[in-house]
Amino acid sequence: MILSDSIVALSSGRLPAGIAVIRISGPKTRFVVEAIAGGMVKERAAAYRKLIATDGSVIDHGVVLFFPGPGSFTGEDVAEFQVHGGRAVAAKMLETIAGFEGVRHAEPGEFTRRAFLNGRLDLVETEALADLVNAETEAQRRFAVRNAEGAQSELYAEWRRRLIHARAMIEAEIDFAEEDDVPGSVSDAVWSDVRALIGEIDRHVDGFRAAEIIRDGFEVVILGAPNAGKSSLFNALAKREAAIVTDEPGTTRDLLEVVLDLEGMRVWVTDTAGLRAAPGKVEAIGIEKARAKAGGADLLLLLEDMALPVDPGAVPSDAPLLRIGAKADLVAGELLVDRAKLYDVVISIRTGTGLSDLLAEVGRRAAASVGEIGDVLPSRLRHVELLKDANDHLRTALAGHERGQELRAEELRLASDRLGRITGAVDVEDMLDVIFSQFCIGK
Ligand SMILES: Nc1nc2c(c(=O)[nH]1)N(C=O)[C@@H](CNc1ccc(C(=O)N[C@@H](CCC(=O)O)C(=O)O)cc1)CN2
Ligand SMILES: Nc1nc2c(ncn2[C@@H]2O[C@H](COP(=O)(O)OP(=O)(O)OP(=O)(O)O)[C@@H](O)[C@H]2O)c(=O)[nH]1
Ligand SMILES: [Mg+2]
């Protein structure tokens, strides 16, 4: 592939900053380094240089790095100018470099796009790199870095190899059918491996929910009768007076949300209107919202006033549930011991009792909901759709005895083609614009 344009962009973040990194990639890179840094620098070693504009004036003093292609991030010649991170310094550098013939400003994601086109990364690794740049929580970072290192790609490549092997065996059987050279037990082994693979792909697809929880967060909804102490708990978790608290039942009507970081997971906590029969008009709307929110929750905190338990009615969700005894400070002695047995966690917002236990338990549940740290999960709906497609073809292949071995082999080919589309090994031109639009400029 000939990519004649060289591209330049600011690859570091918001200015002003301590240092700004201006990166160039493409055939003009050496020429630009020579022109701006007053001569070539040693490969892959930091050089401190005076940086000169086209009119001979000094732009800044900075550190210059040169990575010759193909052993660079993009696979082309790449150089970096690490300059003082002022807006005018960066602007002058960009203007000077883009002023050279054959150099232009990069599109968002264009450096990474070149890395992909030069075979430095596959599509799944590229997506993982976008996730890594966007990661805000420890779980997001861990997940993204493993896939950027190729964990997900390796899994799909391994599945693809198995399918290509299966197809080769079936085609051999077709070719040698008359001669009876390929014993039936070989094709039995092939189809039993295909059956096993279908199961593995199904299980992997089920992991998408875990990937979504890592990306979007774990949804916790506080439910209970009016006055149970829901908003008081919510404020304690939010560490501010986010919700109105009064001794009047029916205070909260709208859904209120706060996001916490527990065990490296993003955890959303929602406060809701107290559940009760025959509320007023506004409160009824609030209760309906609470029910809907609870329906999509990953965990419910069902609060009850230990001093004055009120039945909140049926819980409007089959999400896992923690029973929480609230206002523990209002009960004492034997009654406290007795009632505490009804709950998973006992808390008091007044004294602070039980709050850290509750947070620890919610954090444990959030972390457990995404499985083992090492699990490889599909990270995009795109992957899930292609995996399901692949499995549809495998099921057709498995079921299709009467359709003849040729057609079954063709279904195996279609399945491995779908896997190839995930990593970009097969025909992906149409997906590239969507994928690279996820990046910022300079990446
Ligand atoms: N300054 C700087 N830091 C950066 C990047 C960058 O482009 N510049 N990266 C950009 O995203 C990431 C690192 N990515 C890189 C990937 C490959 C090579 C590279 O030169 N690869 C060669 C040599 C490998 C080796 O010596 O072991 C190769 O693979 O052949 C460099 C950076 C994160 N940090
Ligand atoms: N003693 C004591 N009182 C509490 C505790 N937590 C909440 N309260 C009181 O209980 C009353 C109701 O608290 P809220 O947090 O507003 O209850 P809620 O469940 O949000 O009520 P609604 O929004 O009406 O459904 C307020 O007067 C709180 O001060 C606690 O741990 N101990
Ligand atoms: Mg409330």
TrEMBL record:
Main function: Exhibits a very high intrinsic GTPase hydrolysis rate. Involved in the addition of a carboxymethylaminomethyl (cmnm) group at the wobble position (U34) of certain tRNAs, forming tRNA-cmnm(5)s(2)U34.
GO molecular-function terms, A-Z: hydrolase activity
Limits of the TrmE-type G domain: 217-367
Names of required cofactors: K(+)
Signal peptide: none
Sequence similarity: Belongs to the TRAFAC class TrmE-Era-EngA-EngB-Septin-like GTPase superfamily. TrmE GTPase family.
Keyword set includes Metal-binding: yes
Quaternary organization: Homodimer. Heterotetramer of two MnmE and two MnmG subunits.
EC number(s) per entry: 3.6.-.-
Compartment list: Cytoplasm
HAMAP family to which the protein is assigned, alphabetical: GTPase_MnmE
CC cofactor note: Binds 1 potassium ion per subunit.
PANTHER family in the record: TRNA MODIFICATION GTPASE GTPBP3, TRNA MODIFICATION GTPASE GTPBP3, MITOCHONDRIAL
Keywords: Cytoplasm, GTP-binding, Hydrolase, Magnesium, Metal-binding, Nucleotide-binding, Potassium, tRNA processing
Protein name in the entry: tRNA modification GTPase MnmE
Binding site for (6S)-5-formyl-5,6,7,8-tetrahydrofolate: 23, 80, 120, 443
Enzyme superclass (EC): hydrolase
Binding site residues for GTP: 227-232, 246-252, 271-274
Residues the record lists as binding Mg(2+): 231, 252
Domain of life per record: Bacteria
Lineage: Bacteria, Pseudomonadati, Pseudomonadota, Alphaproteobacteria, Hyphomicrobiales
Gene symbol of the encoding locus: mnmE
Xref: Gene3D superfamilies: P-loop containing nucleotide triphosphate hydrolases, Probable tRNA modification gtpase trme, domain 1, tRNA modification GTPase MnmE domain 2
One Pfam family linked to the record: MnmE_helical
